[in-house]
Amino acid sequence: MDISNVLPASSLFLGIVPALIILYFTLKGYEEYFKDKKIFLSFVAGLLAGFFSIIFESFVRNFGVISFIILIPFFEQIVKTSILNSRLARGTEGAPIYGATLGLGFGSIFIPFSMIIYASRWGRLDIIDISIVTLGAIGFIFFHGATGIYIGYGVKSDRVWRYFIYAVLFQIPLMVVSLVSDEYNLEFLQVLIVVYSIILYWYAAKKVLIMTLPKSKRRKIAKE
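Request: output the structure for the sequence above.
Response:
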């Protein structure tokens, strides 16, 4: 079944819907520590930042392996850091929450982008192709959500550049696996991207995001 004709419009929802589901479960228990308006603005800012980052990535891909592996992580994380270190989150207790929201919005744009890239490369996409592409792209949703939490915590704790560096370093292995998968058509490596990203997100949500809460409430959230 060739369903390339439904791209890219429907693929946008394939990115946004998983991101919103992840966000919904992430925010449970934190309702007192964020403002709905800022959650909305953070997600939209993430979508826009992700879109412009993809344009940047499309140029960098032609500059060689080192540029792909180093420049893309640096650019993507500096974009998220700049947004979170602005009035959106700076000086707020909920900075890691807004970081998660920004990152999930940022990552959600990778599903339509990935489908466009692979559709142009393969000429068509069937159900199996879409499943493989979506799997890897969902990994990027988790990843950018996780690094958003780390950077947000850096903003909250006045250690923003330390956590920016962590985010860049976390992304380099992801770029290596993604590059190898693309260059040698080793689609099964998408599983590594997903596993790595989910582990990173789980740790960020359970061990870093929880630092948003007063100590008296951390134990309750940790048990959920």
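The CA atoms of residues 101 and 199 lie 18 Å apart.
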